[in-house]
Amino acid sequence: MSMTGEEIQRLLDVVRDTQAVEIDCDVCLMQVGEFAEDRLAGKPIAEGLKAIEQHLLICPECREEFEALCQAINALKKTAS
Amino acid sequence: MVRDRNNDEWIKSLEAEGPVRETALADLRELLVVGLKSSLKSRSDYVESMMDDFLQDSLIRILQALNQFQNRSRFVTWATSIAIRVAMTELRKRRWRDVSLEKLVADTNFDPVSDVDGDVVPERRELVEAMYRVINTQLTDRQRTVLLAEIKGMAQEEIAGQLGCSRNALYKLSHDARFRLKQELVQAGFDYQSFAFAFNE
């Protein structure tokens, strides 16, 4: 069984977005909260958070968790108001 | 009604002892329930009976990591991100625990694109073939395994477990493979644009 076309395209996408220096999932976890709050507030991505943006492009697990976090932040806002 | 606190109050309360800490933990727990429920509700692999375990493990992880909180977001946002990591790691582990990495790799190969020929955009065929060539000749067995397992969607925790390495070591393996692949393809003359849309929608 070979890879599907979708899988090959996904591989090409992550290879394209790969950088010489990257952060790992643990570093991403410590800063993704700030990234999510800024994103939901419509702020431009701060220079110090560009590495988080890049990591979310290549790591599907952290991206899934980021999307879940955005949902959670919105739910928490509703609870507070 | 849960009392929210500013970041300093959260840290001080959680580092305190006695009733102050207990109240803060109870409040944090309630907020984590709100966050986790909203982020897991659409997942078919989540059932409510898992919530208590997720909360318990999350609170332990959060308390262990308190000194790593950099005050760059709301404390509750940071704590929720850890709880989501705990919950989703567990759900992924359950989904992939009976899948053998060895079998997944044995069943799949980086063959030439014969069986996806029809879908490849003609001008990208060369790129896809070059990518296979690099994968087959320039990467180590472990790098190929990691790349394939990740593209198949296998959980990183499970890949790391079956390879007998840490998650950070796994990330390095994956990064080295991707970076090598990129370098070789760029050197072969493929530019950034050509990586996109190799396949018809």
Beta-strand portion of chain B reads under 5%
Low-pLDDT ranges of chain A? none
Average pLDDT rating of chain A: 92
- Stretches with pLDDT under 50, minimum 5 residues of chain B: none
Keywords:
heterodimer; A: 81 residues; mainly alpha; 0% strand; B: 201 residues; Rna Polymerase Sigma Factor, Chain: A; Arc Repressor Mutant, subunit A; 2 domains; 9 helices
Break the fold down into its secondary structure elements and pairings.
The complex is a heterodimer of chains A (81) and B (201).
Chain A (H helix, E strand, L loop, with lengths): L4 H13 L7 H16 L9 H9 L1 H21 L1
Chain B lengths: L6 H9 L3 H22 L10 H14 L10 H22 L4 H7 L17 H14 L2 H11 L4 H8 L3 H21 L14
Structure report:
- The complex is a heterodimer of chains A (81) and B (201).
- Chain A contains four helices and no strands.
- Chain A has 81 residues and is mainly α.
- Chain A has one domain (5-80).
- In chain A, helix 2 (25-40) packs across helix 3 (50-58), helix 2 crosses helix 4 and helix 3 crosses helix 4.
- Chain A is globular, with a radius of gyration of 15 Å.
- The mean pLDDT of chain A is 92.
- Chain B is an all-alpha fold and 201 residues long.
- Chain B has two domains: 7-96, Orthogonal Bundle (Rna Polymerase Sigma Factor, Chain: A); 101-195, Orthogonal Bundle (Arc Repressor Mutant, subunit A).
- Chain B contains nine helices and no strands.
- Chain B is elongated and about 65 Å long.
- Chain B starts with 6 loop residues before the first helix and ends in a 14-residue tail after the last helix.
- The mean pLDDT of chain B is 89.
- The chains are: A mainly alpha (81), B mainly alpha (201).
- At the A-B interface, helix 1, helix 2 and helix 4 of A face helix 2, helix 4, helix 6, helix 7 and helix 9 of B.
